[in-house]
Please model this.
Amino acid sequence: MKAVVFGAGKYGKALKRGLEKYCGVDVLAICDNDTEKWDKEIDGIQIISPDRLLQLSFDKIFISLMFGEEFLEAEKQLVELGIPKEKLVIMKTDHIYQDAFMELDPVRKKWMKSFAEYTREMGLTGNVAECGVFQGETAMFINKYWPDRVLYLCDTFEGFDRNDVVYENMNFSEFKKGTFGFGSFQGEKSEILIKYVKARMLYPEKTIICQGYFPESVKRINDQFCFVNLDMDLYQPQIEGLRFFWDKMEKGGVILLHDYFHPDLPGVKAAVSDFEKEINMKLPKVPIGDECSIAVIKL
Ligand SMILES: C[S@@+](CC[C@H](N)C(=O)[O-])C[C@H]1O[C@@H](n2cnc3c(N)ncnc32)[C@H](O)[C@@H]1O
Model:
């Protein structure tokens, strides 16, 4: 298949590489609206302006943009330009190409794949969860690697909660409110985001969407877990995640805390440290080699 990637940023670059490496797609060009990028190259592939798309013969355009408003606008722009809608692949909707996303965070994904195999070998029977889902980039791999488990997907689907950000700014970082789609998916758009997330799953029937402010959103969950990915970035939701899941983890299960080593998100490490004080024990934990996450093991 011959294709074009729309969006020449970090995300588009990873997507281009993933499409070639894992999906056998022949990427002819990368398209971007930024005039400064035109005629530059990524891995020898030229970055072109949108109007040059009409001169190319391709099967699909993969829209690689990160945030909701952006990919909806790109879809509109390309249709107005005369590209048939069936040629557009908004990555959020299409699980056929999900392996292309291996390139984004490959170490963590490979670690999860191995850990999933290990949980089966060890006879762990618990379900799985992700708190902080965003557009489902990691969730779709959790669903793929644990096809036989229920996957709880917890997010506001409207970005960070104001209270969490205010607390974060007072205590830990100047984390910007707008990051990770804050405001992008409010109201009806959060429904679009949930639709996209579900459409990316190989086994959507195994997923349960828990929309809302965490931990309120999970109050009624009474289950046992072998794997939980806590990826809500900020102190408040991360410590609530530890409080909620710790007693629900089965022996040998893991809570993976993303951003533990992230220099701009000190709240994550502080949440672990404060939780250790609360339960009066040091959590058994080990880095997973992605220079970002730590695995907390229930013994
Ligand atoms: C870094 S993103 C998650 C990225 C995702 N795990 C991935 O791999 O693409 C952080 C997410 O946490 C969610 N989040 C942060 N605080 C939350 C809270 N208190 N309740 C629910 N969701 C929250 C945000 O809405 C955002 O989607």
In short: Residues 107 and 207 are 24 Å apart (CA to CA). The domain at 2-100 is CATH 3.40.50.720 (Rossmann fold). The helical segments are 10-23, 68-81, 106-121, 139-145, 162-171, 188-199, 235-245, 266-279. The pocket of S-adenosylmethionine is lined by residues 132-135, 137-138, 155-156, 159-161, 164, 180, 213-214, 231-234, 237 (CB under 6 Å).
